[in-house]
Design brief:
Elements (H helix, E strand, L loop, with lengths): L13 H14 L3 H32 L5 H23 L2
Length: 92
């Protein structure tokens, strides 16, 4: 078990609290450990999804359904959109 380095408060709805408590009982761990595991699982899932997108782009290229220039334009647009989103949300 990890030593807590940060204390955080969350406002959760009743359904989420019930789920959190059930998982803590089922796994025989603290509610904080349930949150740590859930965050780890969510991040792994997000990484898997990102990897799958890259794999799909490669498959499109291999099938000649997407050429390199078109893929590069798409990736440039995604990068631009993410930077724009970050600028808008960081200034809020």
């Amino acid at each position: 078990m990890q030593i807590a380095k940060h204390r955080t408060s969350f406002a959760l709805d009743e359904d989420t609290v019930d789920r959190l408590r059930r998982l803590a009982r089922r796994w025989r761990v603290s509610q904080a450990e349930v949150v740590r595991r859930a965050v780890r699982i969510a991040e792994d899932h997000a990484n898997d999804q990102a990897y799958s997108v890259a794999e799909r782009l490669d498959a499109y290229r291999a099938a000649r359904r997407l050429d390199a220039a078109e893929a590069d334009r798409y990736l440039d647009q995604v990068s631009h959109d993410r930077a724009d989103w970050t600028r808008r949300h960081d200034s809020a």
